[in-house]
Design brief:
Helix 4 packs antiparallel against helix 7 and helix 4 packs across helix 8. The longest helix is centred in the middle third of the chain and has 21 residues. The chain is built from eleven helices and 26 strands. Among the domains are: 143 residues, no CATH class; 188 residues, no CATH class. By secondary structure, the chain is of the alpha+beta class. Helices cover 26% and strands 30% of the residues.
Length: 495
């Protein structure tokens, strides 16, 4: 599993879904002298369709961009001043989910120039600078981004108003922010919950960007090629801030964090710069990118984050598992029921050898109309190595790792024991956990013909689970230990 996919940000969103009111729309929200104003907006990171636009200072008020990335709204007496946050949606330039965050600082919306606004990576920068009380650093950072001729950020559309170099710079800036945010959101607590919310990840990311770009340029002179040393200093600063905020040695950060973000952004900036060097407008750069599918594919593939996919349980793939039910169970021999503790998955978009620490948990509820037994197990601290194709190379549980077991069976009931030594639990790309606990004591209690419902919980540390797998988020509790993870349920009939 996964929680989230990488981001690619397309560069302009124009204007056209409709919000009739930011309050409840009734007469009691309108003061007698209030005149509603319709505002048109553009969200920039290439065009975002179906993105969520939240009015931060207007309770429960949000709208979406339309299929072309346009949005509009009408102010009310209850909602005429607000900051904006844009998340979600699909980048129509790359057809990838937008997983980043765009911000627009709190403004008097009814008095915007021309009734229009542009929400972009630059307005995000302005938002976080103001929040940090460092608005006076804006011009310095814009200069260090080689963006010296922007008079009004809230009205500036890089695709329409900027040249090719400007658009390339803003695009790469957003990709860098998104890459850092994505990886910060893969850090999990021991109980499987994420350490940082999307809002917190964005705050840490821009704190790091502001810290470093206040004193040094991000790009090499005259190009959109990123300075590799400055890039690494930004990522390392984000990690430093994250560690300070976590203040918990048990919450680990992937040691390849910096190298992965750096290599991805360097590759993307080199590719974009190759087009930007041809000159022209921001629109020209976008057009040239769309006319070069091989280059566009290189960029999109580079920016994809590793995600968990291709899940198997007891040799059944995810499609068969999801299709199973109480009335249409999968058939399994009782001798093979222990294979329900054998799992296999892959990391899509791996690109290189990768490591992760995974928690796996299982709930087995089996029996017939006259008899029923359950078995719950939590396996922490599973160290998994993947090759550059994303397949499992090896997996082991480290010495002294605690395994928690509970069961209604009198032969098991509740157990908690430590692994006496580092134990290899993988073979041929699969993880086998059935030898670590007395599962046969449970299986032998179930009569032939029993229906067994098996739910597996997957809680990775460094990488997310592909949201396209549509796994639910569920909890499992054994004693005082409660974990929450992506869950998948299968139904088996013993034969």
């Amino acid at each position: 599993m996964l929680n989230k996919i990488s981001k690619i940000h397309v560069f302009t969103i124009a204007i056209s879904s409709f919000l009739t009111a930011c309050g409840d729309g009734g007469d009691n929200t309108q003061s007698s002298n209030f005149t509603p104003t319709t505002i048109s907006g553009t969200a920039v990171d290439f065009y975002l369709k179906n993105a969520d636009i939240k009015f931060d200072d207007c309770e429960n008020t949000s709208i979406k961009t339309d299929a072309n990335g346009h949005f509009s709204f009408t102010t009310t007496a209850a909602c005429s001043e607000s900051a904006l946050t844009i998340t979600g949606g699909i980048d129509i330039g790359t057809n990838l989910p937008f997983t980043g965050t765009l911000k627009f600082k709190k403004m008097d919306l009814k008095n915007l120039k021309n009734g229009t606004l542009v929400v972009s990576p630059l307005t995000s920068l302005e938002y976080f600078l103001e929040k940090a009380g460092q608005s006076n650093q804006l011009n310095t950072i814009l200069k260090n981004l080689a963006l010296n001729n922007i008079n009004n950020i809230s009205q500036f559309d890089p695709a329409k108003d900027g040249d090719a170099h400007t658009m390339a710079v803003v695009f790469i800036f957003q990709q860098l922010a998104t890459q850092i945010e994505d990886r910060l959101q893969t850090i999990n607590k021991d109980n499987g919950s994420t350490v940082f919310t999307q809002e917190q990840a964005a705050q840490i990311t821009f704190d790091a960007l502001i810290s470093q770009l206040s004193t040094q340029p991000l790009f090499t002179a005259g190009s959109a090629k990123i300075d590799s040393e400055v890039l690494k200093s930004i990522v390392n600063k984000a990690i430093e801030i994250a560690k300070a905020q976590m203040n918990d040695p048990n919450n680990t950060i992937d040691p390849t964090f910096t190298d992965q973000v750096s290599s991805n952004i360097i590759a993307v900036s080199t590719a974009i710069d190759s087009i930007a060097q041809n000159g022209g407008t921001g629109a020209n750069l976008l057009a040239e990118l769309q006319k070069n599918p091989s280059l566009l594919e290189t960029i999109t593939e580079t920016l994809k984050s590793p995600v968990y996919s291709d899940f198997f349980l007891a040799n059944y793939d995810i499609a068969a598992i999801k299709a199973s039910s109480e009335t249409h169970p999968l058939h399994i021999n009782s001798k093979n029921l222990s294979d329900t503790l054998a799992v296999q998955f892959k990391l899509a978009n791996a690109k290189s050898e990768l490591d992760d620490t995974v928690t796996l948990a299982f709930k087995l509820n089996g029996g017939n109309s006259a008899y029923h037994e359950n078995l719950n197990i939590i396996f922490n601290n599973i160290q998994v190595k993947f090759n550059n194709q994303g397949s499992i190379v090896s997996a082991k549980i480290l010495k002294n790792t605690v395994i928690n077991v509970s069961s209604s069976s009198r032969k098991i009931q509740q157990l908690q024991f430590s692994v006496p030594e580092d134990t290899v639990i993988s073979s041929n790309g699969k993880i086998f956990l059935n030898d670590l606990i007395p599962i046969n004591s449970y299986i032998n209690t179930l009569p032939i013909g029993s229906l067994v419902q098996v739910t597996v919980y997957i809680i990775p540390s460094a990488y997310t689970i592909n949201p396209q797998l549509n796994l639910s988020q569920e909890k499992i509790t054994i004693g005082n230990l409660t974990l929450k993870g992506s869950a998948l349920t299968a139904y088996f009939k013993l034969s």
